[in-house]
Structure formats: C-alpha cells, structure tokens
Write a sequence for this structure.
C-alpha cells in the first residue's frame, strides 16, 4: 500500500507591494523552495504563481526566481496551475471579469516561463469557489480545480477517487486539517508521515496539501528546517509514502464520482456556511466596509464596460486603457481581507485598493468626456463617479471611527 501526497504551494503578492518586501520574501521563501526541490531527488510539487507576482519578480530584478521555477518545471519537478492574475475573489466578480483575469494570468506567465507554463489545473484565489466560475474554468481549457475540503459534501479524508462537477471538471479537495496543522506548526516532518498513514487502509490512497508558499521561511521561519527538509530526507528512503503532482494523482486514481461542492473558501468555517456566508473574509453581509467595497467594485466595473462601448476618440481610448488596467489591479482580494477583522485590520491596505478603483473610475469618466459621446452619457458618468466617491468617503469615515 502507498500513500500518495501532493503538495500545492500558492505564491502571490498584491499589486503595488513594496519591492523590499518582495525581495525579502524571495530570500526567505521562494529561493529556498527552489533549492530544496533541486536538492532532494523525490521532491516534486504543484505551484501556483499569480501573474502579478511574476511581473514583480521581473520588475524588481529577481529574474533568478523565475528562471529557477522554469527549470524545475522543465525537469518535471513541479507543475504549474493557472489562476487569476490579480488575485480577485472570482465568485464575487462578473463572468466577463473572471474570464479576463484568467486569460491575463496565462498570458503573463507564458510570457515569462515560456512553453514550460502549460497548466491543466486551476487554483482559484483563496480557494474561493462557486457555481459562477465552473463553466468558465472548463471553457478556458482546464481539467481540474482545487477547492478547500470544507466544500466537500460527500467524502471523508483520505480517499482513493476524485469527484467531478457536471461530468466536466475534476474537483481536487485539499485536506484542510492536515494543511492547517502544517501551517500552524503542529506537525514535524516525521510526524507528518505518521499522520498520513491512516490505520485500517489496505489499498492505495492520496492526500492533497495546499498552502501559501510563503508559509515556508517567511511566515514560519523554521518551516524548511523543522518540516520540509526532514520530511524530504525521510521520503528519500521510504516507499510507503510518495510525492506526486496533482495531475499525476489524476492518472493514478481514475475513479470518478459526481460532486456538488459548497460555495466556500479555505477560510470558510462550518458556522459561516450555516449562516449562508461563503466568503467571510472578503464579503460578509454584516461587515459594512465589505458591503461598501463591493459596491465600489461593481460601480467601477460598470463604468469600465460602458466606456468601452462608447464612441471613444484616440485620446479617450488612452484614458480607457488606464482605467481598464487600474480596475484589473483594484479587484485584488487583499483590500477586503484586511477589512475582515478576522483578526487582521489595515486601513492602509483598504485605502490602497480604493485608490486603484477611484483612479479607474476617474479615467473611465475622462475617456467618455474626451470623446464623441452625447451629453446624457457624460452626465451619467458624472453621476456614477459621484456615487463611487461618496461610497469611498463613507469607508474613510468608518476607518476614522
């Protein structure tokens, strides 16, 4: 009997992250992860890197990190997943924006990683899933999607089969409990091996671990020395536990069953689900800032779409391109996460997100005003901009309380 284990590491930094912080995390986490994977023969894993981080690595002179992950992919040590470039919570944005974020992510990572970036799997930011996203994930050429174990209504862990959504998309549930035990330093490398070797099993099965890659070395300083290195060293001589990528798991375990996953994220609790709150750290109906942030996002996106369909001049198109880029960046999840107060709260991170959306709305309005649009359309954009600025003023007032 063999226990197959797949580690998925998700690495991301928000738009506008301070260069020194990205460099620090590269030193503490990304480079050690690359070197560790090279060092151990049996080491292999699945990697999600959002396109905004890939661009930051390039912009800040950290090209060796990009090259290191590309080399690991070429040598079969890692597989890439696709995702949303700017780390938006996909079930909370319109389908057209979901598609755009996915396509931008693939385009960006393909530009830097080349043909070695050819993902068949999909990592939804924060493992936030819902019915809205599945057809788009399948339509864009993905075979499987990762989800939190709390979304799983049918099976216990571990398992020896996969589930599918509408016979179209394989859903890969992570083991939430073990993933969190590692992240919160409750397991050593050796203890992990005992943890995944469940009693009473007489046939092969698998366990999927999904974590922020920055857990290793950055959030948990000794995660390499106390967990990953001892684990990999132990597995070099152990046949009963084997590391695989997630795509390899799908080949090893061909049995499929239908699934109806719960709308959720990897920060959703059973209590949240019972209260009908699928994404509590990003949109909680009892969180006034969340509600206002969401309204700002939707009003801004409406302006972007309407401006695109207007009769824009060349000057107007330049404003629209700026608006479009700022709106893409303004959808990132961090501003909502920092407003959640579960337990973290940061007025500056909230304001950073609002600033990007405000600039998007202003430039969308300028696009229409500088073009051959009728007065009624221009007035409607003035009204929309006034609504957005008022909503932001309300948020600022709450931050000052």
């Amino acid at each position: 009997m063999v226990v197959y284990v797949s580690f998925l590491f998700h690495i991301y930094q928000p738009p506008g992250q301070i260069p020194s912080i990205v460099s620090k995390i590269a030193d503490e986490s990304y480079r050690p992860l690359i070197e560790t994977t090279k060092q151990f023969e049996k080491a292999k894993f699945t990697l999600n890197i959002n396109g905004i981080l890939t661009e930051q690595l390039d912009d800040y002179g950290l090209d060796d990190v990009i090259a290191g992950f590309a080399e690991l992919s070429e040598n079969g040590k890692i597989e890439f997943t696709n995702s949303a470039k700017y780390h938006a919570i996909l079930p909370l944005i319109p389908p057209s924006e979901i598609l755009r974020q996915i396509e931008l992510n693939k385009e960006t990572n393909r530009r830097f990683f080349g043909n070695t970036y050819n993902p068949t799997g999909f990592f939804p930011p924060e493992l936030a899933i819902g019915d809205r996203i599945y057809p788009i994930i399948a339509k864009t050429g993905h075979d499987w999607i990762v989800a939190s174990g709390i979304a799983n209504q049918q099976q216990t862990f571990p398992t020896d089969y996969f589930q599918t959504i509408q016979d179209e998309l394989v859903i890969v549930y992570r083991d939430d409990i073990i993933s969190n035990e590692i992240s919160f330093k409750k397991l050593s490398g050796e203890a992990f091996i005992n943890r995944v070797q469940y009693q009473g099993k007489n046939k092969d099965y698998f366990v999927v671990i999904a974590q922020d890659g920055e857990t290793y070395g950055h959030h948990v300083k000794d995660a390499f020395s106390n967990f990953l290195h001892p684990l990999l060293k132990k597995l070099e001589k152990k046949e009963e536990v084997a590391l695989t990528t997630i795509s390899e798991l799908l080949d090893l375990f061909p049995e499929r069953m239908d699934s109806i996953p719960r709308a959720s994220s990897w920060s959703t609790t059973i209590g949240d689900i019972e209260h009908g709150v699928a994404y509590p750290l990003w949109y909680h109906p009892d969180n006034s800032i969340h509600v206002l942030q969401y309204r700002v996002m939707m009003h801004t996106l409406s302006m972007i779409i309407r401006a695109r369909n207007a009769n824009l001049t060349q000057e107007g198109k330049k404003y629209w391109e700026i608006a479009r880029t700022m709106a893409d960046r303004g959808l990132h999840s961090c501003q909502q996460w920092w407003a959640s107060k579960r337990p973290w709260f940061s007025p500056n991170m909230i304001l950073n997100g609002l600033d990007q959306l405000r600039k998007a709305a202003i430039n969308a309005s300028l696009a229409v005003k500088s073009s051959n649009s009728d007065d009624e359309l221009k007035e409607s954009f003035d009204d929309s901009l006034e609504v957005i600025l008022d909503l932001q003023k309300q948020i600022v007032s709450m931050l000052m309380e």
